[in-house]
Design a protein that fits this description.
The complex is a heterodimer. By secondary structure, chain A is of the alpha+beta class. Chain A has helices spanning 3-31, 35-38, 66-79, 163-171, 176-203, 210-229, 281-296, 304-307, 332-335, 338-349, 371-374, 416-422, 529-537, 543-548, and strands spanning 43-48, 54-57, 90-93, 105-114, 117-127, 153-157, 160-161, 234-242, 249-257, 262-265, 310-313, 366-369, 383-386, 425-432, 448-454, 460-465, 486-489, 500-505, 511-514. Chain A has a seven-stranded antiparallel beta sheet, sandwiched between helices. Chain A has a four-stranded mixed beta sheet with strand order 8-9-10-11, with helices on one face. In chain A, strands 13-12-16-18 form a four-stranded antiparallel beta sheet. Chain B is of the alpha+beta class. The chains are: A alpha+beta, B alpha+beta.
Amino acid sequence: MTDALKAIQRQIQWNRLIAVVEEQAQTMIRTAFSTTVREAGDLSAGIFDLRGRMLAQAVTGTPGHVNSMMESVNHFLAKFPAETMRPGDHYITNDPWLGTGHLHDLTVVTPAFRNGRIVGLFANTAHVIDVGGLGMGPEGRSVFEEGLYIPIVKCFDQGRPNETFFDFLRAGSRTPVELEGDVYSLCACNDAGAKRLVEMMDEFAMDSLDELAAYIFESSLRATVEEIAKLPRGTYAAEIRSDGYEAPVTLKAAMTIREDRIEVDFAGTSGLSNRGINVPPAYCRAYSCFGIKCVVAPEIPNNWASLSPFHMRIPEGCILNAPRPYPVSVRHVVGQLLPDLMMGCLHQAVPERVNAEGSSALWNPPLRGGAQVSGPAAEVPDFEIITFNSGGTGARPTKDGLDATAFPSGVRTMPVEATENVAPVVFWRKELRPDSAGAGRTRGGCGQVMEIGAKNDAEFAVNAIFDRVAHPPKGRDGGRDGAPGWVGLDDPNGTPLRTKGFQIVPRGRHLVLKLPGGGGMGDPRQRDPALVRRDVADGLVSPEVARTVYGVEV
Amino acid sequence: MTGARLAVDIGGTFTDVAVEENGRRWTGKVLTTPQAPEEGVLAGVRRVLDEAGLAPEDIALVIHGTTLATNAIIERKGARTALLTTEGFRDVLAMGNEARYDQYDLNIELPQPLVPRRWRLPVPERLDNEGRVLRPLDEEAVRRQVEFLRAEGIESLAIGFLHAFVNPAHERRAAEIVAEMWPGLPVSLSSEVSPEMREWERFSTTVANAYVQPLMARYLRKLESGLREAGLACPLFLMLSGGGLTTLETAARFPIRLVESGPAGGAIFSAHVAKERGFGRVLSFDMGGTTAKICLIDDYAPQTARHFEVARVGRFKKGSGLPLRIPVIEMVEIGAGGGSLAGVDALGRIQVGPESAGADPGPACYGRGGERPAVTDANLLLGRYDPERFAGGTLRLHPEKARAALAAHVGGRLGLSPEMAALGVVEMVDENMANAARVHAIESGKGFDDRVLIAFGGGGPVHATRVAEKIGIRRILVPSGAGVGSAIGFLRAPVAYEVVRSLYQRFASFDVAAVNALLADMAAEAEAVVAAGSFGAPTRESRLAYMRYVGQGHEIAVPLPARALTAAEVKEIRAAYDAEYARCYDRPVPGSDVEVLSFAVTVSTIPEPVEPAAEVFDAPPPRPARRLAVRDTATGEVSDWPVYDRDAFTPGAAIAGPAIVAEAETSTLVGRGWRCRMDGLGYLELTQEASR
């Protein structure tokens, strides 16, 4: 075979691998039970070589899993070396430090065999709805309170379910059937990937993935380094504040752009919290990398080599380097601010490619009701649900931010009608929040307002995990800040609730959430007046703000 | 039905006409006339009738499909439309599912709703998930909003309230008030257009219906009167995106159901061909100038779905369009056609499509000023086309222009010769189509084992053997008439109507009486629609339940008997679900209850029986008309391939690959290791003799 044909075939094989992991992810979505996976898409899937290096990752999925799942496979191999693996084996963990950062994420690793020989590994991660413990929320004071802790074990041994494992799993969850079903789904999706991989290797008569891996890594690294080389060298510092739990949290970064790599030092970042907003280091690396990559090299697919030029130094004892057994259940609240922090640094290097700050951290209300909240006086059946909701994203250099859209998270929300069919709740309001978008030449995305009650206005509880209430998203280049968030009740006084922690919504009352708007970019007075008038006509900007902030009479 | 039947398919560039009478067929193509589409239709009809020697009064039925509704949405040329909705929910259309369809692109555009916020107006009212009134409809508020909309010059109105698919009372009452105040204003109700759970999809569908309704109603009336003036007094039926035909009256009420009628016709064409040959498992592969459409067909019925996206802004990216929840023939459409442009990305990888050279300037080899290489250029450079005989000799190709384009945009950047660059481009586009087909099969819970690939469209027969090799298919059929497949498909479609409604049920507490009442009601609705167009022809009814394990998110359709269920049968249906699930995903899930989300009832006329094609004896092979030096994409080697004219084949004649079978509209590439034989129907059947 000629070299030219070989070169073309390697491209075809790379393309195929990306399709294989996409099939893997789609199989999970088709078969998963947890709404967090099947509706929200909180998952990740990828293929690895026998040295634990990621070759390709599904485009379907969420960034928090990117590096963390990639690191995870090495932990599996350390405990179960590749040569000990057998066809039909599946390995699982939810260890936050060996997986993707909290107990709600299950990671499953499956070997792929061809002609009796192990040729690669498939891994996936999914956020399941319940693993017992306190449930999704910040209240735990150690990881042991946060739920069932699964070390790396075999869940299927040569095709046979490990019944002891499944017994423990079912006993430890409020939703045992769904959780068991999800584990089946994760294994089925890796199997689907393995089958396709073997078909590809047969088609191209490949004995191993080594040559293909070398080609993928070489091309990806070269392309990533070329992109980095286009950036102005230097060190750029930024900081961002989160509301935190017991005290505000400061995240600091100094980003150094070198010729062939980018280093980030988080020195100066606040220390650990006593509550579950701490971030395990792999999760910190994941969202930091994501933030850099969307600006610097968005088109290069994720793999071991394309992520390797990004180096993070995370000091011990800081909130971004939580050690075991610190609580980490809602690490996304802090972690999802990291892309904004990275863009704060990159704004000094390439201002025309960076967004203003956005609402960023998801505003997911975990809701619980029935006897687990009200005891024998409960007026509704037991329920435990979470919906995935978002405020506005930051303004972009040439475009407005997106209204009520998830960023950096890659999740979707579920329809109100579907949520009301799985739990006895009523959403009384869910619409865009006027005057919440940070003003600017381009404006931020609007936040939204949600008002939620239980059926018959019964008592229920919210395990709050909200941020950007005391510290709204910042504008850039003269753009105004987005509106801060607000959490409270619909009583006449508008009683505020705490932004974090378990709280009761009393009988007859509704929970009101006002989600933050994104920051604006550039001087609002330079905005096209026609766009200001459009927003006024649409009721998203008040005539007052149009006049005083934008200088447009309507 | 006796007499001649005539089908018209309006596409973006061409309007295709097909007429059939007593087994004879005439077809024609005229240019689409976008400003007044009925003019193109009438011109095409006249031309084909002349050719057939038929008079207008010989035509017993006209069947019509059109992309006009789709184009009106893509080009935003519909009516000034407003939405009355539940207070607190005026932004359902704007917020969608709060997601981005591309994780890494910071500059994505989300599709804008068809109704701007100022015309999305709230009225106080609220039902719960069981349809009970939590807050009564504020009729005064409805009146106030209608006054405002009148002042705004609205032309069409949608009404969408939460949970209206369970209880339409508030929507109906609001519509009554509108009708009293403003008779003649077109009104679309979510409980009628798309009575299913999920407010974003339902409202989006309802608004899209309202948006195209005035335009489509006007057009359909003009077309009908134009046909009458031309002497065609016969009934006019419209092709639905779900694969059935309906009356003009229903089409004018629910024009959103017409959106994908052209591609649906192509799938029905494939299904009919499958039936003629008795192929129970088929993959339909229609590759044109801009896109390739892939559809799974089991037991002669194209796979159907209830979800579709129209007007994608992110270049065919899933999630970047407006969602529609209507019955559709399910297809995956990707940006891979003869005009798809090739280049090299930052990683040194060959990229093909979705950007297309279109008809103007077209691929570089057309010599009309195109400078970037398209798939057609690559095929030409591989030696697959005779430059003097492309498109029946009507278009002379310029190989040197194709070579220059491939050298400049692909080969030079990768250190490959233009010919090897062409090979890379063709391999990549074949790979992209194969990957799309694989992911589509996964999403449908189906495989390719034992499937037959039916290839048509200008590019389908050229790329079929390589795509088949990539997905493990060993038999291909290239029917005749492939250039106007959609119009021919219209002639094969039954008069049919599907009604879908949501009624939540769990098997542990299945309410047989309620389900039977709902199904009977749905059947009556569908029968009434079909009766208007079936002229007493026998019909059949099929029922489906969309089921899943409690807690899962994706339903599987399980057939139900077309009559009232007994309590005893409920268990059997549950068992049928478990079996179907295990078939799709290897193992059923232990311990889970099963829930039903919605039901579908379809009433359809029974298609005319198809005579199975007779076996034909082997006939002597034709002589090659000429030879071409063709580069094999699997080996990279060039050798002399014989080229046969399709007309030179007689039924039973067979040749061995590698070879090319040329005809005016396309070329069938017979890869190395494949054999090609003409069957009794004049179709080319390709079989892979041995894996290579």
